Automatic annotation (TrEMBL):
Highest taxon of source: Eukaryota
Signal peptide region: none
Coiled coil: none
InterPro entries registered for this protein in UniProt: Endo/exonu/phosph_ase_sf (IPR036691), Endo/exonuclease/phosphatase (IPR005135)
Pfam family of the protein (one): Exo_endo_phos_2
The protein's name: Putative tick transposon
MF terms (GO), sorted A to Z: catalytic activity
Domain annotation Endonuclease/exonuclease/phosphatase: ranges: 151-260
Length: 407
């Protein structure tokens, strides 16, 4: 059983500064009103460098809530304090199997912890785009003996939603360790449990929707899969701007898992206020670029039956990308990551070039053999970049420990 953790520190004070910046122009008002929720299976939180990386993300991207799995914290341990955020965690206890551990970094006082006695999942209540929302983070077991335990977890989550989720919209994000045919070519027992759970509660599997940018959530060497998911009620999905999976691994703390970020816009009254404030419109040339991006997205999935809502979702997402580029020059520069160097940048450029070559080959109708070859090259460049980033982060952690030991 888990309970709210005390304020005991495990790793020392973090140097991360408070997130959130005041906005003056209409564009900044919109940025301020965006609500962002993140999640990552960090594969061990006993490295201070990882928490500093999280602190930088919280400051740069202004997350309202940031969930983490597999913290590997025990009993009453806590991560370093991050200014502006409260830690709420569920650690494994002495006598339980090693690993595990869930936690949430929560900004301000807008969210309230619920059901502190739950195992392997956490609950918060708050508001998303003006809607009362029950937000959950979950971790499900993997392995041949996982079916019974995972079935119990789904039963517990369902019961919690019935009892504390009345008149609430629902969001659940987590490492489900579930394989689905749509992503991995097969559905395992946990995947079937996940499908049944979504059907029973009428939840949208966001990974499978057009608003999700990215597919792979776990990658190691030559293997990759989709096992981390985001589920939400239909009303919230209608207001969701985007879900982003960090397939490049640049924001995933060196973990084999990829960070998930979901982003909501302002509530309806706030949107109307922004419209009256006169948010700048895109030029004709920019609109043409947006249209071209939509055309490319649709052409890459010819087998999909596109609905009007799907196309509107793509259009909104592409507009947001161009608006971000417009205001990008106004943003303050942040301290470079300790592991980011020319070697990492070059690897990411090679990955991006390989991705473009594959996309262009498909668009011009190249022979299947050439398209397949371009795809394999892209996968190889992506693995190369991911492995390099993980190695750099690990090296940065070792270097930091050596410097500490010298003092």
């Amino acid at each position: 059983m888990c309970r709210y953790q005390s304020r005991r520190k495990l790793l020392g004070a973090s140097t991360a500064r408070a997130a959130g910046r005041a906005g003056g122009s209409p564009v900044k008002v919109k940025e301020k009103n965006q609500l962002k929720i993140g999640f990552i299976n960090m594969q061990g939180g006993r490295n201070r460098i990882k928490w500093e990386e999280i602190g930088e993300q919280l400051e740069a991207e202004n997350f309202a809530v940031y969930g983490v799995a597999e913290t590997h914290l025990r009993d009453e341990e806590e991560p370093p304090y991050i200014s502006g955020y409260s830690w709420m965690g569920c650690n494994r206890r002495e006598g339980e199997r090693k690993g595990g551990g869930l936690g949430m970094l929560v900004k301000g006082q807008d969210w309230e912890r619920e059901r502190e006695g739950c195992r392997e999942h956490l609950w918060l209540k708050g508001r998303v785009t003006g809607l009362n929302t029950l937000l959950g983070f979950a971790y499900l077991k993997t392995g041949n003996d996982s079916r019974e335990e995972n079935s119990e977890h789904f039963t517990c989550i369902s019961r919690d939603i019935r009892e504390i989720g009345l008149n609430q919209e629902i969001i659940i994000i987590g490492d489900m360790n579930a394989h689905l045919e749509e992503f991995d070519g097969f559905t395992d027992t946990t995947g079937k449990l996940l499908e049944d759970f979504c059907d029973a509660l009428d939840l949208v599997l966001v990974n499978a929707q057009v608003k999700c940018d990215g597919k792979i959530t776990w990658e190691r060497n030559n293997s990759h899969s989709t096992i981390d998911y985001c589920l939400m009620s239909h009303k919230l999905y209608d207001r969701l701007e985007s879900m982003e999976i960090d397939e490049e691994g640049t924001k995933s703390l060196g973990s084999d898992h990829k960070r998930i970020k979901i982003k909501f816009g302002a509530s309806k009254p706030e949107q109307q206020t922004q419209e009256r404030a006169g948010i700048p419109k895109l030029s004709e040339a920019q609109i043409q670029k947006v249209s071209k991006s939509i055309e490319n997205t649709v052409s890459e999935q010819p087998e999909r039956e596109w609905t009007y809502e799907d196309l509107i979702g793509i259009f909104k997402r592409e507009l947001e990308k161009h608006q971000i580029k417009q205001r990008g020059k106004q943003k303050r520069r942040h301290k470079p990551k300790s592991w980011w160097d020319k070697e990492v940048k070059a690897a990411i450029v090679r990955r991006q070039d390989a991705s473009r070559e594959h996309r262009w080959a498909k668009q011009r109708g190249a022979l299947p053999a050439e398209v397949a070859s371009k795809w394999e090259n892209f996968q190889e460049r992506k693995r190369e970049a991911s492995a390099l980033i993980q190695a750099k982060i690990g090296s940065a952690g070792v270097q930091w420990m050596m410097e500490v030991n010298k003092k």
